[in-house]
Every structure is written in C-alpha cells, then in structure tokens.
Amino acid sequence: MPLTAEQQAEIESQSNLQIPTKRPVSPGLEAMLFKALPVLDHGFVRVVDYMGDDSSIVQAARVSYGAGTKKVSEDRGLIRYLMRHHHTTPFEMCEIKYHVRLPIFVARQWIRHRTASVNEYSARYSIMDREFYIPEPEVLAAQSKINNQGRGDVLSSEQAAAVINLLKQDAQQCYDNYETMLNPAEEGGYGLARELARMNLTLNSYSQWYWKINLHNLFHFLQLRIDPHAQYEIRVYAEAMLKTLQAWVPIACEAFEDYRRGAVTFSASMMKVLGRMLNGEAIEQADSGLTKREWTEMMQMLAPYQQK
Amino acid sequence: MPLTAEQQAEIESQSNLQIPTKRPVSPGLEAMLFKALPVLDHGFVRVVDYMGDDSSIVQAARVSYGAGTKKVSEDRGLIRYLMRHHHTTPFEMCEIKYHVRLPIFVARQWIRHRTASVNEYSARYSIMDREFYIPEPEVLAAQSKINNQGRGDVLSSEQAAAVINLLKQDAQQCYDNYETMLNPAEEGGYGLARELARMNLTLNSYSQWYWKINLHNLFHFLQLRIDPHAQYEIRVYAEAMLKTLQAWVPIACEAFEDYRRGAVTFSASMMKVLGRMLNGEAIEQADSGLTKREWTEMMQMLAPYQQK
Amino acid sequence: MPLTAEQQAEIESQSNLQIPTKRPVSPGLEAMLFKALPVLDHGFVRVVDYMGDDSSIVQAARVSYGAGTKKVSEDRGLIRYLMRHHHTTPFEMCEIKYHVRLPIFVARQWIRHRTASVNEYSARYSIMDREFYIPEPEVLAAQSKINNQGRGDVLSSEQAAAVINLLKQDAQQCYDNYETMLNPAEEGGYGLARELARMNLTLNSYSQWYWKINLHNLFHFLQLRIDPHAQYEIRVYAEAMLKTLQAWVPIACEAFEDYRRGAVTFSASMMKVLGRMLNGEAIEQADSGLTKREWTEMMQMLAPYQQK
Amino acid sequence: MPLTAEQQAEIESQSNLQIPTKRPVSPGLEAMLFKALPVLDHGFVRVVDYMGDDSSIVQAARVSYGAGTKKVSEDRGLIRYLMRHHHTTPFEMCEIKYHVRLPIFVARQWIRHRTASVNEYSARYSIMDREFYIPEPEVLAAQSKINNQGRGDVLSSEQAAAVINLLKQDAQQCYDNYETMLNPAEEGGYGLARELARMNLTLNSYSQWYWKINLHNLFHFLQLRIDPHAQYEIRVYAEAMLKTLQAWVPIACEAFEDYRRGAVTFSASMMKVLGRMLNGEAIEQADSGLTKREWTEMMQMLAPYQQK
C-alpha cells in the first residue's frame, strides 16, 4: 500500500471540495481527481489539477469568442483533422498536472522530456522514504540477444529469486547506511548533510514529483513511452496516464489512438515496395531495395494486417 | 467598442455557467473570467481559463499529498522566499490562458517570448477584421534624441493630426484593396487567395490569438514588458494582465512587485561605489570606476530613494 | 539584386578568411558559407556559421571520447537507424546559423517555430529598407475552392497585372508616408518615433534576421514547410535551406528524405484497409470504415505508388 | 586517473587535426579543445565543439552582413550594454558542447536545466563503469543547522573516515552484484537485462554525457550553480566550465562577472532601507520594514562592501 493513513486523509479532505467554476469541467476526470492509480509495487500516478477539455481544443482552433463548440460530430471531425495533419497548437491549450511516485532510474528516463514543469521531492532538503522498487519475478527478463537495449526471456524462478534477493538486500543495506550517515552522533550516526548522504541510495529508490504538461507534449510522451520498445517500468506509468486522458479528453484520445499510437509510417523506400505489393507482385528482400533490417521491420509492420 | 453584439452574447452564455469542481478556484479571477479588459482603441485582453492559485505554488514547493497549505503567514513567507531566491519551478505550476486582440506590430514583439502556447487567428483561412490601431494624439511622440529605440517629446497637435491622418488613410486604403483582391470577379474583385491578399495589410491591423503561459514565464514577460523602457503599445497589455494576476494570485503578485518589478540590481562595480557612499565618501563619476553611462544609470537607479 | 556593393564587400572580406581549427569542418558547407542564396524577389538565405557534421551525430550517439566514427557504412547505418526510430537527440548536436531576408508575413509564420534563436533587425532602432515582396504573376493564384487555406488556379494575366499594381502602389505609398512620418520637420516630415512610424508599413515589407537552430529542429521545420501544403512563399525558403543541409550533412539529409519527407503515415483505420487490399480485396469507400475525407486522403497517399 | 590509455589516444588523434575554416575561431578555446579538465575524483569536463565567439554576439546584435565588429572598445561597450539590460538573444548565437563525466546524483540536479541538448551514456544499452564518487574528507560536512538544504561544519576525521568507508563498501558491493546480475550463467551470473540490473547501482556511480547549450543559457546555468549556495559537487563543474568561457568569450565573460555573478539585487523594501542609509540614517531591523530574515540577508549582501 503506497500511501499512509495521514496521506490518505490529506487526499480525502481535498476530494470533498465542490466549488462552482465557470471554467470547462471534465466530469470524467473530476471523478478520478486526487485518487492514486497504483503503478509498480510502491508507485502511483494521480491527477492533481487540469485545465480545459475537448472543447478547449476546438475553441482555440476556431479562435472563438465563446466556447466555440458546434455539433459534437463537427467538433470530433475538427479534432481528428487537427491530429491527422499535425496542427498541434490547439492541443497545447489543455494542461494536466500529476503527482507521481516513481523509482529514480525511471525518473531519469522520464525527465529527458524537457517540455514539462517539474517539482521533485528534494533529497537535499528532506529525508527519502525507505521504499525501493523490487520487480515481480515475471518481469525479470534476460538481456535480449537481438536488441541491445531490450529484454529477452523471463528468468527461471530460481534465478529470479536470487536476483530479487540481491536487489532487496543491497537497497536495504544502502538505506540503513544512509540513515546511519544522517543520524546524530547521540543515536550512533554521523550527522552528515542530507545532500551528501543521499548518494548512498540505490537507483531503485522511490522519489516523487509534481509534473505538469500540456496535452500535445503529453501525447508525444505517451507515444514514445507506451510503445512496446519502451522499458516496462516506464510503460506502466504511460498506461496509467492514458487512462486519465480517456476520462478527460475522450475525443482527442480516440484521435491519438488512430493517428498516432495505431498509425504506421513507411519510409520512401518502403512505399515503393508497398506499391509493388499492391500491384500483386511477389517480392523478396533481395530485390526489394531494402536492407535486411529494414525488410524485417517492414514485414513486422505489415504482419498484424495480413491474412495468415 | 471592440466587440459585436453577437460576440458579447457568446461571452455572456459562457459566463453564466457554474459547475462544481474539486480543483482550486480563484474567486477573484472567476469574477473577471471571459470579460474583455479594453486595451488601446480596439484591443482587449480577457482571461478564458486558468489552473491553480497561490496554494498551488506552496503545494508544489512542498510536494504534498493534499493541498499542502499551512497558515496564511507561512504560505506567504514561503512564496516570498521562493521568489527572492529564484526557485522558479513552483510558479510554473499555475497556468493562465488569455484571448487577446492586438495590432500586428505588437504581436510581433510579443511572440518573441517563446515559452507560451499560441493559436492565432489565421489570415490564410479567414478574412481579417477591418480594424486598425490609430494612436491617441497624446501618445504620438518624436524619436528620442538620447535613446535610439525610444520616444521623446509629444508631437504638436498639428503634427499629431497630420500623422493620424496618414495612418488612417493608408490603413483604410490598404484594407479596401485587400477586399478588392479577395472579392469575386462578379463583385469587381480578383478572387485572390487569402494567404496572398493579406500581405497588403498594414502592420497596425488588429489580429487576435489565444495565448497560454505559466505563471513563472508570465512574470518574466511582465517584468520586461511593464518596464518604462518597453514600447507603450505593449506595456498597456502587460498592465491589463497584471490586474488579472492581482485577482488570481495576490500573494505571488505582491512578491513579484517587491522582488522583481520594484527590485534594483547593482553590478559588481556599482556595489563598490555603493559601499563607498555608505561609508560616507563623496564620489564623482571620474573617480568611481564607472563609465559615464554606467554612472548616469546608477544615479537614476538611486534617485527615487535619496533625499532631495 | 538584393545586396548593395557595400554589403557584398563586407561578405567578401569575411569569406576570404582561412583559419585552422581542430573542430569538424564540412568542406561542402564551407564552400557555400556567407553566400546569399536568392529567394523570392528580394530575399535570401545565407549560412553564417555552423557546428558539427554527420560525424557529430554518431559521436554523440556513441558518447565517444574521440571522433566516434567507424566505417562510413556503419556510420550511415547508425544515422538511418536513429532517424527511423526517432532517436532525435544526436541530431541536436549539430547547429546552423542563417542570415535571412524575408517578407514580414513570412516571418510571422516562420517565428511560430519556437525552438530557434532569433535576432531580428529592429524597426524600433533602425529604419526599414524600402523593399517589398511583389509576387510573380505565375504564383498569383485564386482562393482554393476545396482548401480553405490554399490556392487554386492561377489568375489571368489581366487580373494578375491588376493585383500586382495594387500591391506595388499600396506598399510604396505606405513606405513614402513612413518616411514622411520619420523625417525631421525641416525636411517636411514629423520626426515621429521609429517604433510608431513602422506601423504604417505593409506586411510584404522585407525584414531580416539571424536565425540559429539545431539540426533536429531544422528537420522538423523543413518537414512542415517544404510540404506541398505549406504556403509557397515560405516553401521556397525551406527549399533553399535544404540545399545547404545537403552540402553540410549529406548522410543525415538522405535519411531525412527517406524517413521523413518521403515517408507516408497510415492511421490505424487506414492500416486495416491496407491489409485488406494486400489480401487482394477490392474495397470501396462505403465499406472501408473510413470517412469520405479520409478515404480520399488515403487514395492520394497511395496514388504515386500504384499501377495506372 | 579518469581516462584510459585508449581514451587518451582517441582524444590525441582528434586534437592533432588542423583544418582551415572561414568560421570564427577562438584561439584560446582551440588550445583547450578535447582536453579533460579534471573535476572531483573521477569526473571531468572537456569542450568537444563550439560555434562563434565574442564577435558573433555583436554581429547578431547589429544584424550585420559581414562580421559586424567595430573597434574593440565599441564591441566591448555593446556586449556590456546587452548584458546589463538583459538583451539576451545575441548571446544565444554562441554555442558550446561539452563531454562531461559526473556522478548520477549530480546529473539529476544538472538535467533540471531544460534548455540544453543531452546525449547520455545509456545503461540500457551499455555496461556502466566501475567508478564512484567518494568525497574527500574535507568536503564531508554535517547537515547545516540554519539551512535546511546546506552543509555545516566539516566532520571530524574519525567520522569522515567512517562515512567514506560506508560509501566505498556499499558502492562496491552494489556494483559487484550489478555485475553478477549481468553475467551469464556460465560465469555464475543471471544474465539479467541491463535496463534492469542498473537499478542496483548507487547514486554516486559515474555516468557521462554530451551536453550542448547556448551561451545565454550557459550563463544562466553558471549563475545558479556557481553560487555559494549550490551544492559543492555541482559547483566544481560550473567553475571548470567558467574557465573554458574565459578562454572562449573573454569580453562576454567579463560582463557576466560584473553584471550577473558579482551583481547584487535589492528588493523594493530593501531599496527604501538603502535610501535611508545613504541619507545617513542609522537603522535597526525593528524599524526597517523588513522581516528578520530579509534584514539578515540584506546585511550579508552589504557586508563585503562596508567599512569594518
């Protein structure tokens, strides 16, 4: 259970507010507001604020004086058109803010997206929680033989147990010594500055932050991080966030699924091959003009759509 | 009057909504929401959405589970501390969205601030309004003799009238011909593409946009554009926006006034002079170690605070 | 001829320098350095500085201690892999700086790309050149009937002549009065501040700027602006810049052509249709699951690759 | 010694190149190019590329056709004027690229500056070096009593030795187990995916990256990180980079020292107190209108400049 009773009480008291506003309100997202969606063993994602909804996208695209919405079908058509043709600025008009708890090695990947605002819990100022990410056995996989930055087969249960044991033991020992460094002399410690002691923690220690981003940049983040090639430990955060988007901006989300997440891009060389295929030609890699790697990738892209 | 009856009706219908939300609500800003604050002769600024308030700044600074607020005096002290020490990220947690109508030459200065989201009315897609900025006689000033990018004395009333006459006549004639280019042949026009015809408009034509920015970046914008050295025509927009901030985030605004807008920065060389002055020394430019220009600037910086 | 003799002399003197450096040098781009590539009637693009070349991309991707290059074929394969899989950060390691002269209405489109550094010629500080963009008759097109933001058929030569006449006359008259406003009283003018007088200029007046951007963001700019749907007057600038890239980073450019400019993206719904087509099914719009608009777009995407 | 012989050889071979270019060349920075400036026990900073020099700042500010430089004294005056009045865009025209080796907890602070381009050594793709930051005894300080995010007195030599011992032992054990997790079964390991095993490393493990930034943003970084309140472990990197700037853009650097690093900013309330002091009034905190904290800060700001 990632939250203490005190934290739950804090969240509860905020959740009970109901104040009238003239701004766009998303009933779907209001229902999820402040609630922690659990991710990994001790992590979570929770929406703490938002601005705008699907109507804000059409309002901005039309630069209108009022709400700018027309019939639902016209609004949907406009949002899909904007998404399809990469008219991205109207999607920037929606904003969402999350509170996230996540392992530090995940935070290091995540922060590479530079278009968000971040306030991270400060280990210079505060003492870190005694909580570490320990993977479930079924996600402990061997190094992939074919992909230098991926995973292959799952470890045997003995191997997994041994790895989990090492991870637990090292994280705990490092944390114990972190505490010893921090503790005052009268408690057997060394009173070391927090900004120094923190360097003894392992990269699976949990941190947390407030993270705020506009919808356009969030879709870009999700497209990269929800991808099967993304590391599992960040993908599960992306999946949790996508659920919040489905509640918040369902039309934009549907367009995202169709024109981004489910879309397939063929290079100029691949398009030539595709044209020949559509003309009924049987093609082998050798006469395709593609490298072996590109050919394999193209076949993988087509596989889900072809007759078995 | 910058708004048509139809536009007013659109705004009214939006203003009458009152939907409950669990999010932070700013009563001061809700009262101003959607209302056009007039700026220049046909321009306006109006808030169309916002996210967060003063409490969101302290919530993010404390990375808290609930609202994160404590006693008002503590929150105020924290916000002032953050502003004073340039801990800027918590101010990024508030966001505001404006609908602005402004002359194109102002829009060109404004857009140089790259940290905002913008949707501008498209002159490729739509026909521009027949409205131009014509300055009041009292703001029509001569080129400054001492400042290459500033204004000097106000023109005489005859000069001002002549200039206003030229501005009006050229803007109207250009717009008339813009319309002629756009009109279909059967109406005596040429049916030219809108993306081409627009090039005939003058730079004082009004455009409009949705403009969304976080509070940190907005303070930076205001600090530069509310400055007496900023061009009058953008400064009046900055002043209108500052009023919306006073209603929205009064504590952060007060800190901004004290630590940014009203603050004075002395260079290392100026600090040496200041030290000597505080020690009772009488100093002339010649023995100050400052150039004449720096000396003049320093004296101007001190003048409002010294005995006459 | 866009450049004065004095400007040419300035450029010449800079072009004759030859100073040794340890940095990567691109012979192709050195040969173009400082030379103005003419664009439109009075505009130009010229490279004034650059940093890195194709080798800098592989060096960064490998985070290497030395140059990081291996065999040309391996480097090419790596660059193509990075481009194909949107590993964009290594492309940010190359930087290029242009000096551009362009009409103001083009500058207003251009500046919407926020990821560049810009220094524009200041009309608050200096007097604008007496130069305007007057389109060639063959680019003067009617408003498109099917695309709200595009062009249709070219105007007749009489219509074109009439439009050109209006554009010339209005631009010249506005500039004449701009000068009158600026001139001192003893020359029959009003001595108006430059920051005010400029508002009388038309949007086809030429401005100029220094514009600096990294290769990743430049590819993104080019992808959007070299597209047939981009306005002609900005597309010709994009085409001139692409030529400089071909001289500078030929391998990255080739990958850009294949994986971005020449690439085709199908939505999830389109992929289902494509799969059925590859399986030999004959499909009509009505049973495709696509809207008419999407169907038309898909047929246009496939047309260049299918047997007539 | 942070570099292997092989790495040194790679660097040497790059350093011996001397290719002519027409671009601005900084002799001072050429002499430092590629050389590793040691920082901390195993870290370094080395310049791997740059673009522009002091002359590029004035060239952009003047939007000139040629180099744009005039007399050295005029150029210096212009650069100082730009810095003093926060005309920041010309400083964006210079760019520099570093290769940095740094502990992960330092990298996490550093990356919060979002205006740079980064390529980090990938622990998903490669195996991390067996190197950790172990502080010197003289930088091991107790938690500050007065500053929640700072250091107080240095630990006793016994305390320091004990802390160093814990840091070494935990880092080594975690690295040993990291290797065990990575190693194949035939070598007694578990063949775990690199992207998983890395989570067992401690935060003082060294990583490395290519980091590229423009001069304006670098000055901003340095101003924050060279400050005495910045953590020592990042401050020493800032100091090493400042040395490279002094070799590269000496005039801009001098302006930075005077108008940024050595400058002092007084709030509006502090300015009132300063005015009274300049008028010869003796003031106590109680009648100053400042809080105790502000008063203390103001006295600290003035202390270096006042007679003892």
From TrEMBL, chains A, B, C, D:
State where dUMP binds: 109-112, 120-124, 198, 225
Checking NCBIfam families in the record gives:
thyX
Q: Which Gene3D superfamilies match?
A: 3.30.1360.170
Q: Does the keyword NADP apply?
A: yes
Query: Protein name, please?
Result: Flavin-dependent thymidylate synthase
**Which reactions does this protein catalyse?**
dUMP + (6R)-5,10-methylene-5,6,7,8-tetrahydrofolate + NADPH + H(+) = dTMP + (6S)-5,6,7,8-tetrahydrofolate + NADP(+)
Q: Which gene encodes it?
A: thyX
- Pathway(s) of this molecule: Pyrimidine metabolism; dTTP biosynthesis
Q: Which family does it belong to?
A: Belongs to the thymidylate synthase ThyX family.
- Bias kind Polar residues: ranges: 1-19
Q: Keywords in alphabetical order, please.
A: FAD, Flavoprotein, Methyltransferase, NADP, Nucleotide biosynthesis, Transferase
Task: List, in alphabetical order, the Gene Ontology terms for molecular function in this entry.
Answer: flavin adenine dinucleotide binding; NADPH binding; thymidylate synthase (FAD) activity; thymidylate synthase activity
Main role?
A: Catalyzes the reductive methylation of 2'-deoxyuridine-5'-monophosphate (dUMP) to 2'-deoxythymidine-5'-monophosphate (dTMP) while utilizing 5,10-methylenetetrahydrofolate (mTHF) as the methyl donor, and NADPH and FADH(2) as the reductant.
Oligomeric state and interaction partners are given as: Homotetramer.
- Domain of life per record: Bacteria
User: Residues that bind FAD, according to the entry?
Assistant: 89, 112-114, 120, 214-216, 220
